[in-house]
Amino acid sequence: MNKTIKTFLLFTLYFLLQCLCFFQSGSYTDIIPYATAELGQSQSHGSWTNGFFFLGQSLGLLIATQISLQYGRKKAVFFFSFLLAASSLFCALSLNFYLFLVGRTIQGMCCGILILGSQSLVFEQSPDPWRLIPLMLGAVASVLPFTIGPMIGGYGKELIGREAMSWKYWFVLSAASLLILSFLLHLCLEDTEERIEKRPWDWRGLILLSIMLGSLQMIFNMGDDYEWFISPIIDFLFFLVVVSFVCFIYVETATKEPLVRIDLFLRKNFLIGSFSLAVGFLLFYGLWTTLLVRLQNQSSFPPHLAAILFVSMAVFSTPIVIWFPRFLGKISLRLSSFVVFFLLGVVYCWMGYFDFYQKRWFWMQPSFSFLLQGISLGLFFLSLTNLIISGLSPKNQLRAVELSSSLRILAQGWASPLIGTLIYHRIVYHKMRLDEWLDGGNLFLTDFF
Questions:
Q1: How far apart, in Å, are the Cα atoms of 225 and each of 23, 229, 233, 420, 426?
Q2: Half-sphere exposure of 329 (CA within 13 A, CB side)
Q3: Using a CB cutoff of 8 Å and minimum separation of 24, what contacts does 346-354 make?
Q4: Distance (Å, rounded) from C-alpha 95 to C-alpha 144?
Q5: The overall pTM is greater than 0.70
Q6: Which chain positions lie within coiled-coil regions (predicted)?
C-alpha cells in the first residue's frame, strides 16, 4: 500500500476513534431521559449517568501516560479499546441502574486513556511533516460532541423508535464500531519497538483521589433529591471528602513520583488558567446539557429536534479549532481568554431571553446565539490551554495539560447535577404540594396541568 494512502487511512481511523470516545457523552446526553426512565429512575437521576462517566474519564486522563509507559502505547490502546467495547455492551445489557453506573464509569476511564494514548501513538508513527495533523484532528473531535453529537444520538433514537429500550442501540453500535476500528488500526500501525519505563505506581494517591472525587460526585448527584444541609448520608460523604483530601495532599507532597503534581498549582498562570477552564466549562456544559434535556422533558421536543438547535455551533467552532493555533503566537493569551469569557457572557445573556412559549419566535432566537456560542467554544480550549502551559518546560507542559484536562472533565461531571439542583431543586415535591393545596376546579391548576 502507498505510504501516503496508509498515513491518510491511519489519520482517518484515529479521528473516528477519538470521535467515538468523545461521543460517549455527547451523543448519549440526548437520550438521557429515555435511558433513565427505562432503568426505573426519576429524571433527577439522569445526570448521574454522565457524572460517573466524567469521573472515570478524569481518572483515566491522569493515569494514561503512566499506563502507556508501563506497558507500551500500542498494547494500552488496544486493550482499553476492547475494554471500552465490553463496557458498552455491559451498559446495553444492564437492567439495574446502579450496574449501569458501573459500566458508565468504566467507559469514562477507557475513553480518558484512549484519548491521550491514541494521540501519542499516532503522533509517534506520523511522518515528520504531518505530525501536527493528529493534534489538530484531536482538537476537532473534542468540540464535535457539543455540536453534531446530540444530533447523531437523537436521530438514531428517532429512526429506531422511542420505545422498547431503543436507547441501547447507541451502546451496541459503539461496541461494534470500536472492535472494527481497533482491528483496522492494528493493520495500519507499524511494528516498532516501544520504550517501556517501569515507574512506581502511586497507588495510595490514586485510591485517596478516587474516594475523594467519588464522594464529591455523589454529593452533587444527590442535591436534587436530598437536602444538602440536613441529610446524614451527604454529611458522611462530605466527611470522606475532607479526610481523603487532607490525606491525599500529604501523600502527594511526600511521594517522589506523585499522581498529581501539586507544585503546579503554585504557578500563577496554571492556577488561574486551570480554575478559569474548569469553572467556565462547568457553566458552559451545565447550561448546554440542561437546555438539551429540558427541551425534551418540559417543552416536549423529540430528541432529534432538540439536538438540531446546537448544530449551528459547528459552523464556526470547527474552523476556529483548525486555524486559530496559527495565530496564537501573535496575540496576547490574556486578551484571547478575556474575549472567550466576554462572548460566553453575551451568549448567556441572550439565551436568558429565550421564550419557551414561542411568543417571540423561539426558533429564530437560538440559531443566531448558537453561532456566537460556537465561536466561543472554538476559542475556549485553545486560549486557556496555552495560558496554562505558558512558561513551563516541555515535560511539565504535558503534565499540566493532563492535569488541567482532568480538572475540566471533573467540572463537566459536576455541571449538570449542580446547575440542575440550583434551578430545579425539589420541583416535583413543590408541584405535589401545590396540587394538594389548590382545589380541583382552580383555573390556575388547569393551566398548570
A1: 28, 12, 12, 11, 6
A2: 1
A3: 346/372, 347/372, 347/373, 347/376, 348/283, 348/287, 351/287, 351/291
A4: 30
A5: yes
A6: none
Q: 253: part of which helix (H) or strand (E)?
A: helix 232-254
* Residue for grid cell 449517568: 49
Using an 8 Å Cβ cutoff, are 27 and 152 in contact? yes
63 and 258 Cβ atoms separated by less than 8 Å: no
Alpha-carbon gap, residue 397 to 167, rounded angstroms: 40
CB 155 within 8 Å of CB 304: yes
Which whole-number Å values give the CA distances from 98 to 40, 49, 93, 174, 342, in the listed order? 11, 9, 13, 21, 40
How far is Cα 49 from Cα 38, in angstroms, rounded to an integer?
13
Q: What distance in Å separates the CA atoms of residue 50 and residue 48, rounded to the nearest whole number?
A: 6
Tell me, what's the pLDDT at 354? 63
Q: So what's the pLDDT on residue 166?
A: 66
- Angstrom CA distances, 61 to 115, 338, 405, 413, stand at 8, 27, 8, 14
Chain-centre distance for alpha carbon 273: 19
3-state secondary structure of 356: coil
pLDDT tens for each residue of 347-364? 888 777 665 555 544 444
**Pair 224, 424: CB distance under 8 Å:** yes
The parts of the chain modelled with pLDDT lower than 70 are 1-2, 131, 149, 153-166, 191-195, 197, 296-300, 303-304, 306, 325-330, 353-367, 424-449
CB-count burial class (<10 Å; 0-12, 13-18, 19+) for 226 = middle
